[in-house]
Design a protein that fits this description.
This protein has 160 residues and is of the alpha/beta class. Helices cover 41% and strands 24% of the residues. The strands form 3 sheets. Strands 3, 4, 5, 6, 9 and 10 form a 6-stranded mixed β-sheet that branches. The protein has a two-stranded antiparallel ribbon with strand order 1-2. A two-stranded antiparallel ribbon has the order 7-8.
Length: 160
Amino acid sequence: MGIVWGCPTYRGDGMKCWTGLVVAALLVTGSRASDAAVRITNDRGGLIGKYIHKYERLRASGQNVIIDGFCASACTIVLATVPSDRICVTSQAELAFHAAWDFGPRGRPVTNPDATRMMYLMYPAPVQRWIAHRGGLTPRTIFLRGKRLLAMYRTCTSRA
């Protein structure tokens, strides 16, 4: 009989010990994953559905989000999907909002009113009010940054 990492190497109590070590390792690994933060620095957006799926997985992971740069278009869905108490912003954070669009005839962008309304309704109330005071989501891009953004979301600390 020997002992490896505090567990006997013979059958019997050794199996319980090894199972305990595996469970402990998984708990430690799991806690590190949920303590980690995802940093957004230069995200120009993309397909709405892709971002909803991405941020739903992020919400389920328990990870925090640090917005530390440009987050535009579909990237801003993070505000609608991840709880606000798990989002922080730095002084470099800049959010860009505009109407949702599809490719129309000849490949030109055409506003999609249903997708635009869906996105608007997903945002938290303070963001909705800010957008509404700027004329709503239109083809023109509006930017949320600085003091106005910092008033809506907590400032990231070094341990964000």
